[in-house]
Specification:
The structure is a homodimer of 188-residue chains. With 188 residues, the first copy, chain A, is of the alpha+beta class. Chain A is built from 2 helices and 12 strands, in the order E-E-E-E-E-E-E-H-E-E-E-H-E-E. Chain A has 2 domains: 1-35, Ubiquitin Ligase Nedd4, Chain: W (Single Sheet); 38-180, Nucleoside Triphosphate Pyrophosphohydrolase (Alpha-Beta Complex), CATH 3.90.79.10. Chain A has helices at 78-90, 149-164, and strands at residues 11-14, 23-26, 32-33, 38-47, 50-56, 65-66, 69-71, 94-105, 110-119, 130-136, 170-175, 178-180.
């Protein structure tokens, strides 16, 4: 970010009056340009005990497997955003049942808001950002090819929750790929 | 947003290739400028059954009461952001116990991530963005002077949860000031 979105002039790092952090401030009109974490919404969904994953056809980590998820857009609710991403990436028709995970990846300024749900039919079709979509039996999950470690931790918990029929909220901050939290084990 | 942050030239609304939404795209360098919802983190905290609220000294709704909360910054975890906001606005030293509420206000592109916690001491001191900070007994809460309706709904639930000693996750999308959700009543 180099230029002001309001007047097109150059920006400089500066602490605005009343603030305590350096921001990108316009050298001409003094507009302050805040930068904040972005939200990724998605869902972990199943069909008769098999979990829905898609394989990334885009960077980063092209070829890795993940639950359908993507950036939440302005103008949508969290649930709408999660369902839209699932539909776009996997073609699946999903009924969301509950919020399942809220975690941040502090190092890259992202917050994940993930629901759990059940597919209304086994129909799937890879979207433009995916090379493949598949339903995995618990024993088949490609643990070594997942998008990133927190995704693996969430899927491990999901499999265990699914097997016992009781779900716990998975929330916290991702540190070295594991989610460390004040309330990981809360019953939901 | 009128000018490109990368080259300073003018922007136009346009659907980039492979996208299905109009974005602000630079007429010169073709950089796409995404706009996404922002996250507000905070906490509802108590001291011996009294809930901590602060009175806004800034727009919007100057003079209204709210739980300490504000924009999450790049580089912090959700929990760090919630504690920082509470400290800045109320001076309180809080122990976060659990995630309490995750809801969006779709109309203004905001997602709220609110924890619940307990104050380690009754010390409070209004920060620069507050005109007053106070601990309220359940019967004293200024219901008609709260920041917005979803805040009132969350505080009603919090009081009820606190009284019975069992907390439920408050999550969903704010429609006409009430939070409508798939899983409002899940036990946490």
């Amino acid at each position: 970010m180099k230029y002001c979105t309001e007047c097109g002039q150059t920006l400089e790092w500066k602490t605005p009056a009343g603030d305590n952090l350096e921001r990108l401030v316009c050298t001409s009109c003094a507009a302050v340009h805040y930068q904040n974490p972005r939200i990724i919404t998605g869902c972990v969904a199943q069909w008769q005990g098999r979990v829905l994953l898609c394989r990334r056809a885009i960077e980063p980590r092209t070829g890795s497997w993940t639950v359908p998820a993507g950036y939440m857009e302005n103008g949508e609710s969290m649930e709408q955003a999660a369902l839209r991403e699932a539909r776009e990436e996997t073609g699946a028709d999903i009924r969301l049942d509950a919020l399942y995970s809220v975690f941040d990846i502090q190092a890259i300024n992202q917050v994940y808001i993930i629901y759990r749900g059940v597919m209304r039919s086994p129909h799937i079709a890879a979207g433009v950002e995916c090379s493949e979509v598949r339903l995995f039996e618990p024993a088949e999950i490609p643990w070594n090819e997942l998008f990133y470690p927190a995704m693996g931790e969430m899927l491990e918990r999901y499999q265990s929750d699914l097997a016992r029929g009781r779900f716990t909220l998975y929330t916290g901050t991702s540190v070295s790929g594991r989610v460390s939290s004040i309330d990981k084990d809360q019953v939901q």
